[in-house]
Amino acid sequence: MSVLLVASVGGHLSELVALVDRMTADDERVWVTWPNPQSESLLRDERVEWVRAVQPRDLVGVVSVATKMSRILDRHSPTHIVTTGSALALAVAPVAALRGIPVHFIETATRAVGPSMTGRLLRRMPGVHLYAQHPGWASAPWRYGGSVFDGYAVTNRPSEPTIRKAVVTLGTMEGFSFRRLVVRLAAILPPHVEVVWQTGCTPAQDLSPAARQMVPNDELARAMADADVVIGHCGAGTALSALDAGAVPVLIPRESAHGEHVDDHQLELASELDRLGLAVTPRVDELTMAHLVAAAGVQVRRVTPPAFELVESTSHLRRRRAAIVAPAAPAAPVLTAVPACLDHGPAPERVIVDGAVVVDLRDRVVDLRDHVVADRLAGSDPARHDELDVAADGG
Question: pLDDT value at position 119?
């Protein structure tokens, strides 16, 4: 059997890398993501189909990748698809469903109390199996398959903690700065501490000339293993990288009230990791050296996690017509005259989900089934449509 593994870069990709050997060890694998230092390092020895980046609320990116998926599926003929999201899952699932290819969507571990918007959208698509990583909310149609945090146990370090080296990482997501944390750390870290900074899109060079936007995954892993403490935003990818390096990290959640993320799911993850004892999780204005010393006094060892069981699916889905079918048209481009604000601006008016995804772009219709762009059809019955904001959230 062959499997297509689909994930946005950052925490979503880190989670899928952590889970894949627990569920598809004997499958032929092909990955779908976009290139950056993390993905190129993690997937160096893997077969990869590189696509364009798709950021949170980037509807144009979702549609652009969706139009390329048919060729990718033709090249590799996967028997099933596994994805941890976020926005890339919305590009892949409708095309796969129309070909009868089962899709397994594993909600990110950052969603500790309920599904993301991506998960809520995929729930309405045929042929998508849904998995939660937290048993507390895994009721039908969601299944609990296990968690990326199953394979770790915490022990005390044998000696008194001393902080001489630190790693600070704010993840790889674009569009959301975490300047508050950089400012706080600059105020509390003693000048003798040697710090490796990965700050993503957060400006930090004025506070630390050594700050870098991106650090290759291998280099970052070595720095974490050599550090006395790892500090970062409370993303699943940052948590996994630190735990794999043997560190209990200090993870500070981003807060939507400060424009640091699309919502407060990092607060949910912080609460869960604190409960498991796998991270120290103060908020920005609570962070002190005492938190760093507490994290430096414990360490992590790996334990064998249980298998992550996927639903066996052997039947092929029938192709279903979309709720709105655009009339036949000669080889039209996929997108024309799309409002510029859709790239990073407000969400569009609606997404219509009924066997395929048809995205209403105010005065245009994109039919992902046939890759046709047509004028909005008069007389459409709104009662048949699920009107949903598209908030393809990041990790």
Answer: 95
Contacts of 172 (CB under 8 A, 6+ apart): 9, 10, 36, 38, 200, 214, 237
First to last CA, the chain: 29
Per-residue pLDDT tens over the stretch 257-292: 999 998 999 999 999 999 999 999 999 999 999 999
Instruction: Over range 171-200, report the average pLDDT.
Output: 92
Regarding beta strands 28-33 and 2-7, do their DSSP bridges make them parallel or antiparallel, or are they unpaired? parallel
pLDDT in tens, 56-94: 778 899 999 999 999 999 999 999 999 999 999 999 999
CA-CA-CA-CA dihedral for 278, 279, 280, 282, to nearest 10: -130
CA distances to 54, 137, 232, 277, 360 from 41, rounded to whole Å, are 19, 34, 20, 29, 37
The H-or-E segment that residue 19 falls in is helix 11-20
How far is 1 from 17, CA to CA, in rounded Å? 19
pLDDT value of residue 58: 87
| Cα dihedral 318, 324, 327, 329 sign | negative
Cα gap 160→285, rounded to integer Å: 26
Question: CA 357, 65, 100, 89 torsion: positive or negative?
Answer: negative
Q: What is the residue whose two structure tokens read 């859709």?
A: 342
| Orientation angle between helical segments 236-244 and 11-20, nearest 10 degrees | 50
Task: For the chain, give the percent of residues with pLDDT over 90.
Answer: 67
Instruction: Provide the residue type at 181 as one letter.
Output: L
Q: Please, what's the largest Cα pairwise distance for the chain?
A: 73
Stretch (H or E) spanning 171 = none
Between CA 89 and CA 315 the distance in angstroms is 21
* 227 vs 165: CA distance, rounded Å: 5
pLDDT digits (tens, 9 = 90+) for 190-205: 999 999 999 999 988 8
pLDDT at 29 over 90: yes
SS3 341: helix
Q: Which alpha helices (H) appear in 102-235, and where do they start and end?
A: 117-122, 179-188, 217-226
**Measuring CA to CA, how many Å separate 76 from each of 47, 129, 319, 393?**
11, 21, 20, 28
